[in-house]
Amino acid sequence: MTLFKRLLSGCTIVALMTVARADIVAPGDVTIENLRIGTSLTGQAGDPVEGRKVFADRKLGNCLACHVNSDIPEQLFHGEVGPALDGVAARWEPEQLRTIVVNSKAVFTDASVMPGFYSLDVGENVREDLVGVTILTAQQVEDVVAYLSTLK
Amino acid sequence: MNRKLLIVLLGTTSLYSMVSRVALADPSEGPLFIDGEIEMITRTESVEGHPLPEVISGWHYRTESTQALEADSFENPGMLAVEEGEVLWNTVEGSEGKSCASCHDDAAESMATVGASYPKWDAGSAKPINVEQRINMCRVEKMGAEAYPFDKGGQKPMTAFLKNLSLGEPVRIDVEEGEMQAWWERGKEMYYTRTGQLDLSCASCHEKNNGKYIRADHLSQGNVNGFPTYRLKQSALVSLHNRFRGCIRDTRAEMPDAFSDELMALEVYTTWRSQGLSVETPAVRQ
User: Fold this and answer.
1) Are A102 and A30 spatial neighbours (Cβ–Cβ below 8 Å)?
2) Residues of B known to be catalytic
3) Where in chain B is the domain with CATH 1.10.760.10?
4) CATH number for the domain including A66?
5) Which of A3, B106, B142, B159 is most buried, most CB within 10 Å of its CB?
6) pLDDT per position as a tens digit, A73-107
7) Measured between alpha carbons, how far is B132 from B115 in angstroms, rounded to an integer?
8) Are strands B229-231 and B236-238 parallel, antiparallel or unpaired?
9) Residue A10 and residue B25: Cα distance in Å, rounded?
10) Which of A64, A80, A126 lies closest to B252 in CB terms?
């Protein structure tokens, strides 16, 4: 590869990254209409395989802490604080599932104890290193929504 | 059998029984007798103004093997600290050449129900104080000894020893004394304030969702009658303020200091909620 070509391909990558970043909706800019977030937070489709991992990972979604999900039998002890997620895609559309994952309180009111996974409207006294940080990234939210949409 | 080995074996047994647990949401039946003799009040009608109709000890939410550990004072791993505390009671420390016993004689008589009635209003500092702080006051003012730092030295053993003397006594707190009412209010506000990135309050788990499983953990009402408590998860005796801090940390929030005004207010309020349950110190929990 010539130096020129290298430079060119480097520029293309930088340009692509810039485009991708510009497309990410910041937590404060998410628009919820009729309980729906109509478009992907990243402009990209979610990956259900990745979403399943994020869902189960105790350090990421940790969704099994509170929800039963018989699609993940390899993990023991599914919690029961929230509803079982079997067939959740038959009850909610992807745009609604996106809202619930982003900020469940926008759907279920403050009575819900479910954390907002892409919200900065959180509790008091947030740990210093987590101020301004969401639990999941925009793409992880999209991946989880894509995964949940497979649970019919 | 070597006692420590026994403890490890029993801890392992309780893990196995966790694996095979039946997913029952209701707290298990009692009654709890310690050594088949001392009957514990583990369920009772709550005090007026309490949001829940019945207060239930965390003992009911644990597996059978964990429950059995608490019911036998020889098997209860927390009793090691109680025995250590009894030795400390009779140990001379500090510039005045005194032990606790020098002034208070036989703790079984002089301290018979003391552990069931803290926190108390302290007019001197114009704040509520707990048993840990009361011990430190005696050490500094009467014995000329150093105050125990939080969770260090003899603090947990002495607290466990004193509270264990009240084993079976119902927890009570006088919220009419001094300015206790204002501290109760502040503690109540803390109890319902959501903290951290996970946006959870004490009430989110222990009032709204007690009886349910959060992963493998059966959420209790969060009553404080068993502290210091032996936690199998940590293989250690755990003080109340350590547990407060642990819960707050788990919401991904900054933790208030032990014995800070915030956590003292929370101790006043949660003790008020736990009233009527027997002191179970040292309780055994997951």
Assistant:
1) yes
2) 247
3) 27-76+174-285, 78-164
4) 1.10.760.10
5) B159
6) 999 999 999 999 999 999 999 999 999 999 999 99
7) 10
8) antiparallel
9) 58
10) A126
pLDDT in tens, B65-106: 999 999 999 999 999 999 999 999 999 999 999 999 999 999
Given a contact cutoff of 8 angstroms between Cβ atoms, the answer to whether A27 and A118 are in contact is yes
**Considering the domain B78-164, what is its CATH architecture?**
Orthogonal Bundle (1.10)
DSSP state of B197: T
This prediction has a pTM of 0.89
Chain B residue numbers with beta carbons less than 8 Å from the beta carbon of A123 are 193-201, 251, 253
Query: How far apart are the C-alpha atoms of B34 and B43, rounded to whole Å?
Result: 15
User: Can you give the pLDDT at residue A6?
Assistant: 56
Domain hosting A126: range is 26-148
**Tens of pLDDT, residues B221-259:** 999 999 999 999 999 999 999 999 999 999 999 999 999
B254 → closest Cβ in A78, A115, A127 = A127
Q: Domain B27-76+174-285 - what CATH class?
A: mainly alpha
Task: Give me B138's structure tokens.
Answer: 């005696």
Cα–Cα dist B116/B225, whole Å? 8
